[in-house]
Amino acid sequence: MDYSKINEILKNDGVIAFVTDTVWGLGCLPNSEKAVKKIYDIKHREAKKPLILMSYDIYPLFDYVCQPIEKEAQRLIKKYFPGALTLVLEKSENTPDYMTSNLSTVGIRVPDNETFSNICKNIDGHVLATTSANISGEPPALTYEEAVKYIGDKVDLVIESCRHEAQGRASTVAGFKEGMPVIYRQGEIEIV
């Protein structure tokens, strides 16, 4: 995999498509407002729908959320990361409003996929602002071929999955109310 090429694309406000453990994703650097806007344009995504942040590990994501993280969130991170769980937490000042639709929260996730992990380990900052690889309202890409077909001509690079395929079921999205988890979208993981 040509990480210098991937870094070059991202540094120049580019958008990449990549495999995760659930579905294929689109991503860019969180601090590139131009690239975030490109993702919204590619997907025809409503401005009120935020992007989420993903990395190969929880630690690079801590910069983007308020500390300390509440106890229940810490428990879920220990139990389900890496995996198909997106946690919605209060964002820190490092998380730009333009990628969270001006909300005070941001979703974070650590996919359990070796190809995705290797990409994040090798890019500057180790974090991508992401969403699923599809046009809004259409099903997300589940394979390299589908990613190329759906959005290949609209992104700067579709990265091969290197035999680490998506499983096809979206992540569970959970937030917190008075310290208890609230499920916003039931996906792959059943929280217990």
Report the end-to-end length measured between terminal Cα atoms.
37 Å
Kindly state the percentage of residues in helix. 25-40%
DSSP helix count? 6
CATH architecture: Alpha-Beta Complex
Rg (C-alpha, Å): 15 Å
Class derived from helix and strand content = alpha/beta
Largest sheet: 9 strands, mixed
For the residues shown, what is the average pLDDT?
96
Number of E strands: 9
Shape: globular
CATH topology: DHBP synthase
Low-pLDDT stretches are none
User: Please, what is the CATH homologous superfamily?
Assistant: DHBP synthase
Strand order of the largest sheet: 7-1-2-6-3-5-4-8-9
Explain the overall architecture.
With 192 residues, the protein is an alpha/beta fold. 26% of the residues lie in helices and 22% in strands. Strands 7-1-2-6-3-5-4-8-9 form a 9-stranded mixed sheet, with helices on both faces. It has helices at 3-11, 33-43, 59-62, 71-80, 114-121, 144-151, and strands spanning 16-18, 25-28, 52-55, 85-90, 105-109, 127-132, 157-158, 172-177, 180-185. Strand 8 (172-177) and strand 9 (180-185) form a beta hairpin.
How is this fold's topology laid out?
Blueprint: H1 3-11, E1 16-18, E2 25-28, H2 33-43, E3 52-55, H3 59-62, H4 71-80, E4 85-90, E5 105-109, H5 114-121, E6 127-132, H6 144-151, E7 157-158, E8 172-177, E9 180-185
Parallel strand pairs: 1-7, 3-5, 4-8
Antiparallel strand pairs: 1-2, 2-6, 3-6, 4-5, 8-9
Overview in brief:
The protein is 26% helix and 22% strand.
Keywords:
DHBP synthase, nine-stranded mixed β-sheet, 9 strands
